[in-house]
Automatic annotation (TrEMBL):
<feature type="binding site">
    <location>
        <position position="201"/>
    </location>
    <ligand>
        <name>substrate</name>
    </ligand>
</feature>
<dbReference type="InterPro" id="IPR020861">
    <property type="entry name" value="Triosephosphate_isomerase_AS"/>
</dbReference>
<comment type="subunit">
    <text>Homodimer.</text>
</comment>
<protein>
    <recommendedName>
        <fullName>Triosephosphate isomerase</fullName>
        <ecNumber>5.3.1.1</ecNumber>
    </recommendedName>
</protein>
<comment type="pathway">
    <text>Carbohydrate degradation; glycolysis; D-glyceraldehyde 3-phosphate from glycerone phosphate: step 1/1.</text>
</comment>
<dbReference type="GO" id="GO:0019563">
    <property type="term" value="P:glycerol catabolic process"/>
</dbReference>
<dbReference type="Pfam" id="PF00121">
    <property type="entry name" value="TIM"/>
</dbReference>
<keyword id="KW-0324">Glycolysis</keyword>
<keyword id="KW-0413">Isomerase</keyword>
<dbReference type="GO" id="GO:0005829">
    <property type="term" value="C:cytosol"/>
</dbReference>
<dbReference type="GO" id="GO:0006094">
    <property type="term" value="P:gluconeogenesis"/>
</dbReference>
<keyword id="KW-0963">Cytoplasm</keyword>
<comment type="function">
    <text>Involved in the gluconeogenesis. Catalyzes stereospecifically the conversion of dihydroxyacetone phosphate (DHAP) to D-glyceraldehyde-3-phosphate (G3P).</text>
</comment>
<dbReference type="GO" id="GO:0046166">
    <property type="term" value="P:glyceraldehyde-3-phosphate biosynthetic process"/>
</dbReference>
<feature type="binding site">
    <location>
        <begin position="7"/>
        <end position="9"/>
    </location>
    <ligand>
        <name>substrate</name>
    </ligand>
</feature>
<comment type="similarity">
    <text>Belongs to the triosephosphate isomerase family.</text>
</comment>
<dbReference type="InterPro" id="IPR000652">
    <property type="entry name" value="Triosephosphate_isomerase"/>
</dbReference>
Length: 241
């Protein structure tokens, strides 16, 4: 089944979350053939978890810490997330890698911790514009996969990968569906049977073009997931695929 995930990033207070989910639940009530995931900020997980608990919409976190507990000021553990109903965690998003210095080693620890706790990581990979211009896209993606998944085997059904070319994120300039397909194929050849999502300026207008590619197994949506109507349209674009 395809996965359509909304990453709200640092947007929406708990009351705005409540308002969004009230509308969104109604809009996607009849969706049956698509897995839907909402990833609000930590401060909205509690209200979202309560509202989504008897629904077909899953709840994800945007980050986690790999340690179980302890003196890690400002961090959030997987047990804390699990108790709120979280079943997915976005790991290694490019904004965490490049704005907050998250390394492949930290990302690897987070992926391992998620799997040990029974939470499903969505590992994000993707190249910068300089890498793309230098023809290094596949090398960069391969290295992020190797390091991020170091020591792990048999990942089918336990993890999803999100291919998010950094130059396409929040810019209104997505990759072409063919470019995405090319990298997704490579990821599947490298890792075996995993779902690969595309992320980067996905909108209700282009969602179907991506989803019609044979190796695009879902979408990780930022900006267009902030409005319940536009996110519902993207979810519905996946229903027929
Ligand atoms: O996690 C989502 C991505 O970073 C994509 O963001 P965007 O849809 O605003 O380009």
């Amino acid at each position: 089944m395809k996965l359509i995930a909304g990453n709200w990033k640092m947007n929406k207070t708990p009351s705005q979350t409540r308002e969004y989910i009230t509308k969104f639940l109604e809009l996607v009530r009849d969706v049956k053939n698509t897995e839907i995931l909402l990833c609000p900020p930590f401060t909205s997980l509690c209200v979202a978890g309560e509202m989504l608990k008897d629904s077909h919409i899953k709840l994800g976190a945007q980050n986690c810490h790999y340690e179980e507990k302890g003196a890690f000021t400002g961090e959030i553990s997987l047990s804390m997330l699990k108790e709120l109903g979280v079943s997915y965690v976005i790991v290694g998003h490019s904004e965490r890698r490049w704005l907050f210095g998250e390394t492949d080693e930290m990302i690897n620890k987070k992926v391992i911790a998620c799997l040990e706790k029974g939470l499903r990581p969505i590992l994000c990979v993707g190249e910068k514009i300089e890498d793309r211009n230098a023809g290094m896209t596949l090398k960069v993606v391969e290295s992020q996969l190797k390091l991020g998944l170091s020591g792990l085997e048999d990942l089918a059904g336990k993890i999803d990968i999100a291919y998010e070319p950094i130059w396409a994120i929040g810019t209104g300039t997505p990759a072409t569906p063919e470019d995405a397909q090319f990298v997704h194929r490579f990821i599947k050849e490298f890792l075996g049977d995993v779902r690969v999502l595309y992320g980067g300026s996905v909108s209700p207008k282009n969602a179907k073009d991506f989803l019609s590619m044979p190796d695009v197994d879902g979408l990780l949506v930022g900006t267009a997931s902030l409005d319940p109507e536009s996110f519902a349209q993207i979810v519905k674009a996946s229903e027929g695929e």
